[in-house]
Design brief:
The chain is 34% helix and 29% strand. With 370 residues, it is of the alpha+beta class.
Amino acid sequence: MKKDIDKLNDAIFIVTSEESCPYYDFGDELKVENSSLKISGFKPVCLYLSKNIEQIVTLKEGSGRLSRLGGLKMPGHQKSKYDCGGCTGLIQFEFKREKGYITLQMQLLKEAEEQRNRKRLDKFYNVLRMLDIFEPLEDESLRDLILLLDFKTVLPDKVLLKKGDPSAHLYIILKGQVAVIDDNHQKISEINSGEIFGEMSLLSGEPENNSLHTMNGTQVAMLSVKNFRHILKKFPTLQIFLFKLLIDRVQAQALLSGNISSGMTGDLEEVPAIDLMQLINSSQKTGSIEVVCSEGSATVYFDEGEIIYAKFKKLSAKDAVFALLTIRKGFFTYSRGIPDELKMLPPIGGFIGLMMEGVQGIDEQNHEEE
């Protein structure tokens, strides 16, 4: 006779180790409530993990919940460990407690954590509330986000980010100053209290272009790359702010160094199409820009800075480029590399001459309209 299936409806597991998991960190709690897996904060529920925990908490009738839960022992004995099954990364987790059961040690740890969180909110809430980046967030959302931040005080003349390394955090300067250092060990700019850095590397996935050193005793709030991705999904308004900030910095640095990175996204109102194309040409990039606007979408391919292919609505080649130069509102994305079949195409015209012809055509059109 087939036995009935009983489920452990309420339990808590804790992540004990993590290797390149895109979602979870060491110490995260995995809660089973009413037979459903719930993750606190901004983190999504992984289907691999959910399926695995569902199998763990499903017990045969009369097996004894804690003593036979996949080999788990009663409190005071060695705990059994499980893994998520793996996707691009892997976590291990173990049973922490049933809902309603908690040891004195767990209670003291919980109370200590809650006390730390209260102190953190009291100390940093008003400071972060005044920052432009968090202005769009509701008060409760900002409080939740503060609990995801790590706070650190760094001594003067210490390296926070090294050129060539990818950023692992978004940094928010709460107090102090950070210097941007070039290859000649010269300071080329400063980042001051209330400003952020590290977001360009996080958004583009590319390494830092310069090193960043503290100029004095500096206090920073750091958001890990995982939590950074989670809050961007949770709060689209932060995406808009960061992308605008990104474009401002890209434009400033690009004019200084002639550099534009793959994955960069921006607004044509802030970086006009002609400036964007000149930037790619001057840095001799091989890649493409995709433009989306109310008039339609456009694609322009560059080979070592020269335009080899362009399409905008039903237009192509020069006509597509000239039409794109007239667009004032829209969004663009730059991507590195071009398809193999386009690598043998010749330029559709000398770049400078092409731009001059396009601008002249716009001037003539404006004059006729007047």
